[in-house]
Design goal:
Blueprint lengths: L3 H14 L12 H8 L3 H13 L3 E4 L3 E4 L14 H7 L4 E12 L2 H7 L6 E11 L2 E11 L16 H8 L4 E10 L2 H7 L6 E11 L2 E11 L3 E6 L7 E6 L5
Antiparallel strand pairs: 1-2, 3-4, 4-5, 5-8, 6-7, 7-8, 9-10
Length: 247
């Protein structure tokens, strides 16, 4: 049989990830959970401690436990969403949703993403425009079993990355940066020549062992760069930085 503390953990996790319980909502008091699950206080404490360790819950002395605010999207590379970066750097940013559709994972994608074939996903293609220039194509897959709220989200008020950061706690991220040549479709959208060099960022994020989203973001090579300052024993910081095209 499944341990009771694990059942409590999974029940609370499901309510948080589904959006039923929002950041700042109070978790039922420990004695209420003890009563609901017919278990000891130690069992409830173990479940809540695990939720705290996963970043889903914060415990405040004398006031109780609350749903945690989503973490800022920050790993060893410290990469934030494109719009936030642009605004913080003093640039104007806007975006256009070029494509949005509900779909399923194919066999090859499922193997690549370590997911399940036929899993429902939301596919989005978004164009980011900084200072009037097309600066990035964002091609994203959101796993709907992990983020059910995305099914009806239009992203009219916030781009996908910003919306996800405000809605979904994550526990692990992986980044790959590579150089690619613009294919015909990418060149047309970014208003560059086919074959021109681009920077491509691939990012995957998970909540525990469940993948939340997979995204590929492609920048024209002469409009963005990745730069960072590193110090021993400190977290590495790496940010996208817009820069002017060479003369």
């Amino acid at each position: 049989m499944e341990p009771i503390y694990l059942r409590i953990f999974e029940d609370i996790e499901a309510k948080i990830l589904s959006g039923e319980w929002r950041p700042g909502d109070r978790i039922p008091k420990e004695h209420d959970l003890v009563k609901s699950y017919g278990c000891s206080r130690m069992t409830v404490t173990k479940a809540l401690t695990t939720l705290v360790e996963r970043g889903l819950v914060v415990r405040k002395r004398k006031t109780g436990s609350f749903v945690a605010a989503p973490q800022i999207d920050r790993t060893v590379m410290d990469i934030q969403d494109i719009g936030t970066e642009a605004v913080l750097a003093g640039h104007e940013h806007r975006y256009e949703i070029l494509m949005r559709r509900i779909d399923t994972l194919g066999q090859a994608e499922a193997r690549q993403l370590h997911g399940h074939a036929d899993a429902e996903v939301l596919r989005i293609q978004c164009l980011h425009i900084v200072d009037g220039k097309p600066t990035a194509i964002e091609r994203r897959i959101i796993l709907l079993d992990a983020v059910p709220l995305a099914r009806d989200e239009t992203f009219a008020s916030a781009p996908p990355a910003e919306w996800l950061l405000s809605q979904v706690p994550w526990s692990k991220a992986k980044h790959v940066i590579r150089a690619v040549s613009a294919d015909a479709a990418t060149a047309r959208i970014l208003e560059i020549k086919r074959g021109e060099p681009c920077l491509n960022l691939i990012r995957q994020t998970w909540q525990n062992d469940r993948m939340v989203t997979y995204v590929e973001i492609t920048h024209p090579g002469d409009r963005f760069q990745f730069a960072g300052i590193f110090h021993p024993a400190e977290k590495h910081a790496l940010r996208r930085q817009p820069h002017e095209a060479p003369p």
